[in-house]
Write a structure and sequence with these properties.
Layout (H helix, E strand, L loop, with lengths): L4 E6 L2 E6 L5 H22 L7 H6 L6 E3 L2 H16 L11 E2 L10 E4 L4 E4 L1 E3 L4
Antiparallel strand pairs: 1-2, 3-6, 4-7, 5-6
Amino acid sequence: MSPPVFRHEAMATYFEITVAGHPEAYARQAAAAAFRELDRLEGELSRFVESSDIARANRLAFGKEIAIGDDALECLLLAAGVAESTRHAFDPAYGSERRPELPEGAPAFLLDPASHVLTSRSSRLHLA
């Protein structure tokens, strides 16, 4: 008999979890815990959830800043690192409106990891 597959919709897609080698009750609890964490992260990181750190950042005017949580900071630091290492082939702020007075290649946002502050460097920040 194949292990049960648990499915959950979040972040505009479907996630599936299979827990092999454990009783179904345990597998169901484990999948439910993972999906709760997924929903929590979606609430903090989704641009479609008005109260999320990402949605709040996308409403910032140039030069304005907000405090962001640990998860958004970690995600954006990782994304900024990937953007730099790929020479911006991947860019979490690809759709942002760049300011003409800033040098070519200037980042659309700045992060201060010590204070958990994100500062917009765009006329219209668009974190996806």
